[in-house]
């Protein structure tokens, strides 16, 4: 994953590469050739990037409620608490 600034388009560039076991030559990715791993490149204006960052912060901060015993996030399906050595499943969130 890469993050950069494109001065020509005055855009923030977010680049994601497919996971591969092979070493990736940076020039293949930068030159946008057919060789190399699949890639996604997104260009955002500074205003769009700020809106994305603000939204991401709200989503992450909303989070999931913590377990009162171990402080790990509670899942909607239930929670195996490490403080109980995994023997007792905690009830789902909201019950």
How would you characterize the overall build of this protein?
The protein has 95 residues and is of the alpha+beta class. Helix content is 23%, strand content 23%. The chain has 2 helices and 5 strands. It has helices at 26-30, 46-62; strands spanning 2-6, 11-17, 39-44, 79-80, 89-90. It has a 3-stranded antiparallel beta sheet. The protein is flat and about 55 Å long. The model has no long low-confidence stretch (mean pLDDT 81).
Strand content: 15-25%
**What is the helix/strand order?**
EEHEHEE
Total tally of structural domains:
2
Give the biggest sheet: 3 strands, antiparallel
* Span between termini: 39 Å
The 3D shape can be described as flat
Mean pLDDT: 81
Task: Give me the secondary-structure category.
Answer: alpha+beta
Low-confidence stretches are: none
Spatial order of the strands forming the largest sheet? 1-2-3
């Amino acid at each position: 994953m890469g993050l950069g600034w494109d001065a020509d388009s005055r855009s923030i560039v977010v680049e994601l590469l497919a996971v591969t076991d092979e070493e990736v030559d940076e020039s293949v990715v930068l030159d946008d050739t057919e060789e190399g791993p699949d890639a996604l490149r997104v260009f955002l204006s500074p205003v769009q990037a700020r809106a994305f960052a603000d939204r991401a912060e709200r989503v992450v901060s909303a989070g999931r409620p913590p377990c009162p015993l171990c402080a790990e996030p509670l899942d909607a399906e239930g929670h195996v608490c490490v403080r109980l050595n995994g023997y007792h499943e905690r009830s789902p969130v909201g019950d």
